[in-house]
Amino acid sequence: MPVSILGINHKTAPVAIREKVAFSPSEINSALASLKADAGLDEVVIISTCNRMEIVYRCAENLKPDPNASESDGSDSDYSDSQPRGLATNQKVINWLAEHHQLDVSQIESHYYSHLGHDAITHLMGVACGLDSMVLGEPQILGQVKDAYGYATHAGSIGLYLNRLFQQTFSVAKHVRTDTQIGESAVSVAYAAITLAKRIFSDFSKVTVLFIGAGETIELAARHLIRQGVVDIHVANRTVERAQILASEFDGTDSQGSKTQGLKIKAQAYSLANLSELVVKADIVISSTASPVPIIGKGLMEKAIQARKHRTMLMVDLAVPRDIEEEVANLRDVYLYTVDDMQDVIQENLKLREDAAKEAKDIVSLYKEKYLSWLQSLTSVSVLKGFRSQLDKIKSDEVLRTIGKLESLSELNNSQVEKMVSELANRITQKFMHQPSQAIRKAGEENDQQKLKILSEGLGIEKPDN
């Protein structure tokens, strides 16, 4: 099973190293071709994200025992005898990686990790399920692994073994997402806010959202809510230009919510000077600015609630210091949550994800065994091909021999034809029976009943009546 992985990720290297070994989409094709040729690989896939770079490869040469290697202790039948060859190939990959990115080899060797055989299969499947991510269970990695598979397919660097491995990997990731809660619980403040919103609003297509601020946290929260079906968005910021940049990313784009298919998102930008009128329209307010003092006070919200005729309102303050005065939480019809409230949700949900991760590992183990069973089946396919080839040669040789005899005769009568066909059948039968007969005879002499049973079943021999 010559499958290996060599990688560098957020656990083994700082971002300064990770960014140096990253691959852009435009260079993946040429990199795959170069790596495959220079390292002598049969198949290769490169996974490159902001948090990891992994090279998944297959090298059939690794299966050949090293004549200089010490006798195996039998600890891993797939790799024990071929470890030295596997390590040599690993070094070729390291050398290529260093040369490609113009780095010193020591920079790679100080931060890389590698997995061989069973460990490589388990690792790849775990990565696709989000078990090895910086945020446990994050869903984006599966799409990135699928992208890597697509690049390798387009480049022609993936074959039978890795194609099957990646297909099994996609299946296990889907199974884990469907049957566990590893991706259901919020583990970021932005997504935790959406979790709270879902407890209050059942139909996001009818909700107006006001985002105060235009930074990364607000952008992430906006994307999460759009996936839930929000189509009416207001963005207010100290500088209107920055608000316009964020709003323009969403304005006029297609809704991503299942209930709002066919609708266009309407996103508008405003100055903070418009807050008093904006909060009246907003069902959800999410705020995250760098203001040193609150920008929404109790008085402003009292007027807004009255103007809204006491319709329920969710306010999420993700800023430190606070953007919303804490007294607003005392108002009727307003649900106010702060960063501390979000952290409580996140910690609770992290525990849920960790429990789900244990289930996910069991599912990964199941799919790993499926892949290993498929690999073992290839051995029988190889044997059958060899058996078929051997019989075809016997048939071909005997047919040519018989044709030669027929061509040497000027005239044939029925008895001669019958005799030649009978001789042809006998010769083929005798040659077919030769090796199985020897194996059966040897098993009988050694009184190996288990082997006799296997040979009988394999050859379809019915037990004779006594």
Task: From the structure above, extract its key features.
Rossmann fold; 10 strands; 466 residues; alpha/beta; Beta Polymerase, domain 2; 15 helices; four-stranded antiparallel beta sheet; six-stranded parallel beta sheet; 3 domains
Estimate the helix proportion, in percent.
40-55%
The sequence of SSEs as H and E is EHHEEHHEHHHHEHEHEHEHEEHHH
CATH topology name of the largest domain: Beta Polymerase, domain 2
CATH architecture of the largest domain: 2-Layer Sandwich
Please tell me what the overall shape is: elongated
Q: Which sequence of strands runs across the widest sheet?
A: 7-6-5-8-9-10
Strand content: 5-15%
> What is the overall pLDDT average?
85
CATH superfamily of the largest domain: Glutamyl-tRNA reductase, N-terminal domain
Structural class: alpha/beta
What is the oligomeric state here?
single chain
Tally of helical runs: 15
Integer tally of domains: 3
Query: What low-confidence regions span 5 or more consecutive residues with pLDDT below 50?
Result: 65-82
Q: Based on DSSP secondary structure assignment, what is the total number of beta strands?
A: 10
Computed over alpha carbons, the radius of gyration is 34 Å
In the CATH scheme, the class of the largest domain would be Alpha Beta
First-residue to last-residue Cα separation: 46 Å
